[in-house]
């Protein structure tokens, strides 16, 4: 059987993770896995974060729930965090980055409260998710990708597909 890697698409909410990950899944035939949706469907929560205005993920339960699929390979996972996944799961991590003003507009359009917009734009300014990724995985497999406009999206898709082709050749 062909060995396939797992890819993590991460970054602040609104940077374009699901847009990129879904498109990539449809091109490659890999499985798109939105960790937030999975947690919601299965109610894998452990309380509510009043400050961030969102439920708190039960990380251990999420990991248990994902394990079987991840072991098979060929998953494109999408989540705005990355430090609780087992390191062995992912062969590459892409952290999407968006200019503050663009991100602000996208989050406002999403109908987020002022506070939630502010929290998330701050998260992007302090490159919280990038640092989390660099602390959780080998630096060589963590890549930042600009995600500001449709040209960026096209470039990112091509870049990831090129990486994937090489990985498949090297590992099969
Ligand atoms: N490369 C891009 N250029 C312009 N708009 C984008 C781009 N990627 C995503 N968007 C838009 O930004 C918004 C947030 O994208 P989404 O994929 O839902 O982000 P996330 O999954 O990171 O929360 C959506 O309205 C989407 O259409």
Explain how this protein is built:
One of its GO terms (cellular component) is cytoplasm. This protein is α/β, with parallel strands linked by helices. It has helices spanning 17-28, 35-42, 59-72, 100-109, 114-125, 128-136, 150-171; strands spanning 7-10, 31-34, 45-49, 54-57, 75-79, 92-97, 142-146. It has a five-stranded parallel beta sheet, sandwiched between helices. A hairpin with a 4-residue loop joins strand 3 (45-49) and strand 4 (54-57). Helix 1 (17-28) crosses helix 7 and helix 4 (100-109) packs antiparallel against helix 5 (114-125). The longest helix is centred in the C-terminal third of the chain and has 22 residues, at 150-171. The mean pLDDT is 97. Bound molecules: adenosine-5'-diphosphate. Adenosine-5'-diphosphate binds at residues 11, 13-19, 106, 147-150, 152-153. Residues 11, 13-19, 106, 147-150, 152-153 line the site of adenosine-5'-diphosphate.
Give a topology summary.
Elements: E1 7-10, H1 17-28, E2 31-34, H2 35-42, E3 45-49, E4 54-57, H3 59-72, E5 75-79, E6 92-97, H4 100-109, H5 114-125, H6 128-136, E7 142-146, H7 150-171
Parallel strand pairs: 1-5, 1-6, 2-5, 6-7
Antiparallel strand pairs: 3-4
The chain binds adenosine-5'-diphosphate.
